[in-house]
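User: quick one - fold this with flavin-adenine dinucleotide bound?
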Amino acid sequence: MAFLQDPPQLPHPYRSDRLLLAWLDRALPANRRAALDADLDALGDYAVMAWQRAGATTRRKPVLTQWDAWGQRVDRIELTPAWQEGAAMTTRHAVLAAGHGDSEHARLEEFARVYLYHLASEFYTCPLAMTDGAATAIKASGNRELIERALPHFLSRDPATFWLSGQWMTETAGGSDVGDTETRARQDAAGQWRLYGRKWFSSAVVGEAALALARPEGAGSGGAALALFYVETMDGARRRPELIVDRLKDKLGTQELPTAEIHLDGLPAWPLGELANGVRQVAPVLNVTRSWNAICAVASMARAIALARDFAEHRRAFGRPLIEQPLHAQTLADLQAQFEGAFALAFEVAHLLGRVEHGAAAPHEAALLRLLTPLAKLWTGKLAVAICSEALECFGGAGYIEDTGLPQLLRDAQVYAIWEGTTNVLSLDSLRALAGDGLGPLRTACTDWLDGGDDMHAASAIRQTLDAAARWLDRHAAARDTLEAGARGLAFTLAR
Ligand code: MFK
Ligand code: FAD
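Assistant: Sure. Structure tokens for the protein plus flavin-adenine dinucleotide:
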């Protein structure tokens, strides 16, 4: 019998993740830490089951049926198994509800769940992130009617009443520049707002609600004239006829996620707040989903490294397991080091978000969160691609073969840098965040971190980097084009 290589085994993503365990042990009070354990353990079990199930499943894509046999428009979308289980998993383990609990630790407890659930969920976490963002923006709007209407569904612990929300921003004319939005909002004779237009990417098309940007009739051009609306997509068990699913997109990755092109033909809508400054009103959504993106990117890195390490322990070359080949071990160690930096940045954002939302933050921490959110999103988005690519190479040719399940990691990772603001857009957003006190909050945080440690060499290198960045910002303060051209370099330096 010829030699046969065993496939890589996924170690339990919770019990074997010393980084996550150490972070939670350090950050959480003992009683909250203990209360979290059962959900994290169960989500880890689910991840192992999903990895094994994926190896035996060939069906990857949702299927859209637009018409029934008798010519009736139905726009029915058949989902993959993980998606069918999504509402039950989310509500049973309080994935969203945890983040809106009454504690500065709520976000950390939520994001630990997200980190473990993400890959098994097959990007069901994408609409979950948008639902979390919608809940956050609706709370921030202070709109009592919408708070009472939508939040009990978005944060439900019962799958029968749980709703997903989409985020309808991108149009054919502009995804980064949403100021070019063409969708119109018009009031009917009864005073009901209705939306008319085309949304070019809708990743929560099976959701029950969405937040949508639209231009109220008579408003001017540009982003400031847009309004933010809440919509519902269902009329009882049927999709509302004013929402038409044109097609599902055929994508490089995230193939289980039903990303649709849609038309709105008079869909009823309710403004969250004033009928202008919709971009400002949608900013809480962006910042929450960008935090999710960073955590999910880190989850992809963790998965790729865990599989590559397991393989290295069992695959032999030149007389010994790969893990005993010094250069292969060094390659894995380099991946691990980069991953640990990204993990710390992403979870620091989660930690800060909870502290800021619950009034537990130090004075500089709100501004720090505002800056670290785009930095974490852009840094982890790029690093996920690099790490997944290198991890695939660790499997040799097997890493390139579709039914090992490995190429999907790389294809899926490519999305983190594109959606929710590309790397360039996030670099420009970090310039926005640096307006005012500039690097002050980061400097304060670094001083706190560095004074607590004993690595004088690292402390002085970081201070020098911040000084150089501050000089660069000062020198080009009046030259907007120069600032923008250098924004990516600056953002990468600060994130690193
Ligand atoms: C599994 C992982 C989970 C992830 C799920 C992902 C699901 C994917 C779904 C999507 O991709 S949804 C679409 C996401 N689209 C974007 O992220 C849009 C990217 N483009 C930007 O972010 C642009 O920078 C932006 C649209 C915001 C620029 O618009 P404008 O109108 O040119 O912005 P402007 O005038 O600079 O800012 C308007 C206001 O918003 C300002 O406040 P004021 O009115 O008070 O002056 C800004 O300060 C504020 N603002 C903008 N970005 C902000 C923000 N405030 C706080 N945080 C931010 N990030
Ligand atoms: P463009 O804005 O045309 O950007 C093209 C390039 O130009 C990019 O590299 C960008 O970095 C660069 N660029 C743009 N402006 C600048 C600038 N000022 N300076 C420097 N460089 C710049 N959107 C939704 O609203 N809802 C969804 O549910 C949703 N789901 C998605 C799911 C998937 C799988 C994907 C891939 C996208 C999804 N999107 C969704 C859309 C996504 O948010 C946009 O594709 C993204 O914001 C980029 O917009 P765009 O495609 O119009 O690219």
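One thing worth noting: The first strand starts at residue 63 and ends at 67.
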